[in-house]
Design a protein that fits this description.
The chain is of the alpha/beta class and 422 residues long. The protein folds into 3 domains: 125 residues, Transcription Regulator spoIIAA, CATH 3.30.750; 66 residues, Archaeosine Trna-guanine Transglycosylase, Chain: A, domain 4, CATH 2.30.130; 192 residues, Vaccinia Virus protein VP39 (Rossmann fold). The protein is built from 11 helices and 22 strands. Strands 18-17-16-19-20-22-21 form a 7-stranded mixed sheet, sandwiched between helices. It has a 6-stranded mixed sheet with strand order 3-7-6-5-2-4. Strands 8-9-10-11-12 form a 5-stranded mixed sheet. α5 runs parallel beside α6. The radius of gyration is 23 Å and the shape is globular.
Length: 422
């Protein structure tokens, strides 16, 4: 990795962005919304607002009052989103300033303290709504922090959030990533760019970090999400324990996280399948980064570039079989109306995966679609397996790791099934 000289985050001067309006927006809501907010829900939708004092800009603070005109919550106003207010604080009035953000970030860091044993330096520091900072994610890759924003409502508050962040987690650099909705509103970005280095040396290549003693690269500037799928850490460790002596297929492999763990677990052969050439090249490099581990060096690693559905079908037709098949696709449902289509895709993947799985083998199948209910996902996988004449015997169902907590129903997205077949 090559870096260009620049200031460190400890002495950074962050971008000058206009702050929120001094005047708060007073909001009155429906009884249903009031009940949800009293139970700590982080979202107030536009249709739940009965009246408000005035229009505001993205990032202005909105104060929500109950039917008795008492304080209920305060949050970030976003006039372009159906989630009109993202709630920062419930219950009693609070001053939302740098000290408030620092305390919130420190609390999030404390939740993750047990992960930081030296063997792991890549983790999620802030998981949006579930850490009380809706629409904001912070991932840590050793000395690189990646801040991802999903709403322009955060921009006026960066003057307080950024110094608070580097106070809590000192880092070499801080990189900004922007969600799809923000990229569609360039006029709201105050000149900021996706992948921009906000402080510290610019990147010329990936960063390296450790996960359970293994070394991986991540590309925080151009990679998917923030560069790596940190939420599958625990499931990768489970795969490692199942891999000894096995032939393994890692479908939707991306940069080979599951592949490297399977190799360290003693897999004889690992096949990484993905449509992205650059991702698979990174998977090869990740294997090489861990070649000092005898089991990783001994494992044969094969890459298959192409559509996962088509690749599995071809492997099945040619008679290729595996002892362990891992299927970890991207989110198939971005909207609720796509949930049925997503379930159909999961069923198809189950059939294709079982088509290359040896008798007695293990299927690991995951979903990261929040629009797909966990029970519906598990039922779909079981249904497809039964229809294929290979009913599943469950080993376990898993969900979110410690650094991806869930504090409200809509915040749950990750589910994974471990099962064997006859």
């Amino acid at each position: 990795m090559t870096v260009l000289p620049a200031r460190s985050c400890s002495s950074a001067t962050f971008p000058e962005i206009p702050g929120p309006a001094d005047r708060r927006i007073a909001v009155h809501v429906t009884p249903e919304a009031e009940r949800a907010l009293r139970h700590g829900h982080p979202w107030l939708f536009d249709q739940a607002i009965r009246r408000q004092s005035h229009e505001g800009l993205a990032g202005d603070l909105a104060v929500v009052f109950d039917r008795n005109r008492d304080f209920l919550a305060v949050g970030l106003y976003d006039p372009r989103s159906t989630i009109r207010v993202r709630v920062l604080h419930h219950g009693r009035p609070a001053t939302i300033d740098r000290d408030w953000f620092r305390a919130k970030l420190a609390a999030a860091a404390q939740v993750r303290a047990s992960l930081l044993d030296g063997a792991t330096t890549g983790y999620r520091l802030v998981h949006g709504e579930n850490d009380g900072l809706p629409g904001l994610v912070v991932d840590c890759y050793d000395q690189t922090l990646v801040l991802k924003l999903y709403t322009p409502a955060w921009l006026p508050h960066l003057r307080d959030v950024l110094p608070a962040l580097v106070d809590v987690i000192p880092a070499e650099r801080l990189i900004l990533r922007l969600g799809r909705a923000m990229l569609e509103q360039p006029q709201e970005l105050c000149g900021l760019r996706d992948g921009e280095t906000l402080c510290g040396p610019d990147l010329d290549g990936p960063v390296l970090f450790r996960e359970n003693g293994l070394c991986f690269e991540a590309d925080p500037v151009r990679g998917q999400k923030t560069g790596f799928f940190l939420d599958q850490r625990d499931n990768r460790a489970r795969v490692e324990k199942l891999a000894c002596g096995k032939e393994v297929a890692n479908v939707f492999a991306y940069t080979g996280g599951f592949s490297v763990y399977a190799a360290r677990g003693g897999a004889r052969c690992v096949v990484s399948i993905d449509v992205g050439t650059a991702a698979l090249e990174a998977a090869v490099r990740n294997m090489a980064l861990n070649a000092h581990v005898p089991a990783v060096a001994a494992a044969a690693h094969e890459i298959v570039t192409g559509d996962a559905f088509e690749a599995l079908a071809r492997l099945g037709e040619t008679g290729r079989r595996f002892d362990l098949v891992i299927i970890d696709p991207p989110a198939f449902a971005q909207k609720q109306e796509q949930a049925a289509q997503a379930l159909s895709a999961y069923e198809r993947l189950t059939r294709l995966g079982l088509g290359v799985l040896r008798p007695g083998g293990t299927l690991v199948q995951a979903s990261c679609s929040s629009r797909v209910d966990a029970e519906a996902f598990f039922e779909a996988v079981h249904r497809a397996a039964a229809q294929a004449g290979r009913p599943l015997r469950e080993i376990e169902r898993t969900d979110h790791p410690l650094d991806h907590p869930v504090t409200f129903k809509e915040g749950a997205y990750l589910k994974c099934l471990f099962a064997t077949v006859p």
